[in-house]
Design a protein that fits this description.
The chain is an alpha+beta fold and 229 residues long. The protein has one domain: 3-Layer(aba) Sandwich (L-fuculose-1-phosphate Aldolase). It is built from six helices and nine strands. The strands form two sheets. The protein has a seven-stranded mixed β-sheet with strand order 3-2-1-4-9-8-7, with helices on both faces. The protein has a two-stranded antiparallel sheet with strand order 5-6. The longest helix has 21 residues. It starts with a helix and ends in a 19-residue tail after the last helix. It comes from Azospirillum palustre. Pfam families: Aldolase_II. This is Class II aldolase. GO terms for molecular function: aldehyde-lyase activity; metal ion binding.
């Protein structure tokens, strides 16, 4: 009997969306979802449009897995992030064109635009290169993601974290957009970089917006009822 059907379907839907949104190509990416006692991860070498819920691989944090399908070659990244980050439910790994263009130069994304704050800090770091599927790569990624929700992988691609698959997808689109904007901006020279205190201010305003709070102390609307017409 296949368990965690809704989570399995969320992984499949997320994979299809990655390609539809242009943040991945073919079968190069992978996606995981936390479940009780472990996680679900995409299988290796299967076209996304052929996936069924039973194909999604259930793994334990000890590296064991159930079923006939082998897990993604990058399962260590998913296992290590989910084990180390209880705030994370979904881990998305993809090879989007613009983020990867920066990554092949070992470059991250600095705070040239305030939306960098969405990734959890004043930069989106680029982890050093290591061979795909290795523990070294997972270790580098975990370091680059310290205090962050996204990072690039040198000569490789991108990792994005979320509290849901939908949240990880949305952030992946934002990071790819920032990468594209940064590359375009560099055509005119290195852009101005916003200081850390401004990014911290922006992050707090975003946090307040998320929870429906006034974004500034003087931003609360007047406490008066609007008459109905």
């Amino acid at each position: 009997m296949t368990t965690n059907l809704s989570e399995r379907q969320a992984v499949i839907d997320g994979c299809l969306a990655m390609n539809r949104l242009g943040i991945n190509q073919g079968m190069s990416g992978n996606l995981s979802h936390r479940i009780d006692g472990g996680f679900l991860v995409t299988p290796t070498s299967m076209p996304y449009d052929a996936l069924t819920p039973a194909d999604i691989v259930e793994m334990g944090f000890d590296g064991t897995y159930l079923g006939d399908r082998r897990p993604s070659s990058e399962w260590r990244i998913h296992r290590d992030i989910l084990r180390a980050r209880p705030d994370v439910t979904a881990v998305l790994h993809a090879h989007p064109p613009f983020a990867t263009a920066l990554a092949v130069h070992g470059r991250g994304i600095p705070s040239f635009h305030y939306m960098v704050a969405l990734a959890g800090g004043d930069s989106i770091r680029c982890a050093p290169y290591a061979t795909f599927g290795t523990q070294d790569l997972s270790d580098h990624a975990l370091t680059a993601l310290d205090g962050r929700l996204a990072c690039l992988l040198a000569n490789h691609g991108m990792i994005v974290l979320g509290s849901s698959v939908a949240g990880a997808l949305a952030l992946a689109v934002e990071v790819e957009t920032l990468a594209r904007q940064y590359l375009y901006a560099q055509q005119f020279g290195e852009p101005a970089i916003l200081p850390p205190d401004e990014i911290a201010r922006v992050a707090e305003k975003m946090r307040r917006m998320k929870y429906g709070q006034p974004i500034d102390d003087n931003d609360a609307p007047e406490d008066t009822a609007r008459p109905r017409l």
